[in-house]
Amino acid sequence: ERRSTWCCLAWTLLVATMNLLVFLMNLLLMFVIFTIVLLPTIVVVYFGFQCHSQVLHSAAHYCKSFLDDNSSSALIILGFVIMSPLIVVAMAIYCSLARRLRLFLCFQPYSRAVYKGVKWCRYEEGGLCSCARGWNTQVKAWV
């Protein structure tokens, strides 16, 4: 049975807020994973740009004693070269964690706001936010 107009609007705001919170939680998890995995690249590129005379040319001790323009350029190139495989590793870690925690099943459809009596997800039904009973963990996305 359909909800009234005002009730539907209130439930739509509730479902949209829940979906936004789940989205922000996924975004925060992705940001943390990518930051940790890409930290070596960030550090190497930072020091390369900081010590290069054409960019920032810092007066720090390590820039004067260890890094000249050629070694700074090498650091910048090395940082950008190792970035591609680390992005792949970070995305694999995030996707594996999201699948294991079933994070994408936490999104609620808007039919819950429009119709009365639609069953809400519960923790007891098999997972953090899973609505499906007996969810098959052997199902592959590329079937």
UniProtKB/TrEMBL annotation:
InterPro entries: TMEM88
Annotated keywords: Membrane, Transmembrane, Transmembrane helix
Transmembrane segment boundaries: 20-49, 74-95
UniProt keyword annotation of Membrane present: yes
Subcellular locations according to the entry: Membrane
GO molecular function, one term: PDZ domain binding
Organism superkingdom: Eukaryota
Membrane topology: Multi-pass membrane protein
GO annotations of cellular component type: plasma membrane
Similarity annotation: Belongs to the TMEM88 family.
Stored PANTHER family: TRANSMEMBRANE PROTEIN 88-RELATED, TRANSMEMBRANE PROTEIN 88B
Protein name according to UniProt: TMM88 protein
Organism of derivation: Probosciger aterrimus (Palm cockatoo)
Origin organism lineage: Eukaryota, Metazoa, Chordata, Craniata, Vertebrata
